[in-house]
Amino acid sequence: MAKTHVTMKVNGAEVEGLVEPRTLLVHFIRENLQLTGTHIGCETTHCGACTVDIDGMSVKSCTMFAVQANGSEITTIEGMANADGTLSHLQEGFRQMHGLQCGYCTPGMIMRAHRLLKENPQPSEEEIRAGIAGNICRCTGYQNIVKAIQYAASKINGVEFKEAAE
Amino acid sequence: MIPGPFSYHRPESVGDAIKLLSSLGEEARPLAGGHSLIPMMKLRLATPGHLVDLHAVAGLKGIRRDGNSIVIGAMTTQHELLASDEIKASVPILQEAAALIADPQVRYRGTIGGNVANGDPGNDMPALMLTLAATYRLEGPNGAREVMASDFYQGAYFTALEPGEILTSITIPVPAAGHGYAYEKLKRKVGDYATAAAAVVLTMAGGKVATCAIGLTNLHETPLLATDAANAVTGTGLDAASLKKAAAAAEAIMSPAADARGPVEYRKHVGGIMVARALQRAASRAK
Questions:
Q1: Domain, as residue range, for A31
Q2: Which of A26, A61, A79 corresponds to the end of one domain?
Q3: Helix or strand or coil: residue B6?
């Protein structure tokens, strides 16, 4: 099958590649661009481990072809740290609140939470839980993931983070 | 899981999309949000030789008011429906249902056109379209035509779409001001298709149901309009006996498949419960 030339902006850098039409975006990101922070979990659009940010949308990159992302602007987990290399509020939140155990779902969780907080900087706990409903974690029971996102929301809004009483 | 090989086409007009689909024939499939088709392709349950991606086609997106109707472009995403003030004000049941479809990531990509045109009995929007008396605009090599949603569904994955045709927009008559609405969906988990779901749009007058329409999701190989059930409650105050009658009338037309969501008897039973709950909740919202 003839390959198609694609260009896109990934984490601020212009990238290009030759892809078959059937190449899934997640494979292009991991194999062509060698950005392996974006994980492949279920491969069936359920788990959200492959979530990336495309043109202001959270997208499961296993359910989109790389050719469809031609010309788009993408952020992956590798683009989430601050410019000076320090952790972003969300990354810091996941670290401080123990928002991960095995870490497999974490890149997708952070990418989804990133867009959620852009659209709704002060989400309620219920809104956070609904917002990450497309991301599955099999370790933590979500409690600390929710706290991690609340932590980040507090930092973004410049207020002190207070953990809700258990 | 990697799909089989195919050629990718990205037309920029409805005319070009139709030309491609017509000339490429049965090997070609239109690609909207792709969240039904791409998973099927990964499982090799679908192996189209050509994909005609509709994302670059001008004029297929957007929500606008046209007199007493709302016109929704086929490539409008579920996320865009949820964000629309026009939908919130005029046809809020669409937002209630959209929020129950899949998950946030899927809703950024999944489109209303794909949802209604695919003919999947598990999709939520078709039953709403029957309930709202919507019409679909189908455009193909022989021109454009309008088809009532109630005439569109012929069987599981079989619709009125002819070869080379695509569904380009949906027109919904705006329900009466002060109408009540509810979409009750029983599902096993986030992202699942309905075990059973019921849509209700009604108006009340003096504490009694004045007009009522009821749609059913995933309880037959096509979406259903439960006309007898709606008639059973019209003129009543939704007392227990009337609700029971409506549920029974709805159950009488259901013929769900027995699958992982439960045996036929269970799915019909909970289908009746969804009807009763949707009626009550819709009535409580009516002004």
A1: 4-79
A2: A79
A3: coil
Question: CA torsion sign, B188 to B192 to B193 to B194?
Answer: positive
User: Residues of A with CB below 8 A from B42's CB?
Assistant: 43-44, 62
Tokens found for residue A5: 């030339």
Per this entry, what is the length of chain A?
166
CATH class of B7-53: alpha beta
Shortest Cα–Cα distance, B57 to chain A (Å): 13
Of B7, B108, B191, the CB nearest to A59: B108
Of residues B10, B42, B105, nearest to A59 (C-beta)? B105
DSSP at A140: S
- Please give the CATH topology (third level) of the domain spanning B63-173: 3.30.465
How close does chain A come to B101, measured CA to CA in Å? 11
Kindly report the pTM of this predicted structure.
0.96
Contact B71, B29 (CB under 8 A): no
Amino acid at the residue B13? S
pLDDT tens digits along B37-91: 999 999 999 999 999 999 999 899 999 999 999 999 999 999 999 999 999 999 9
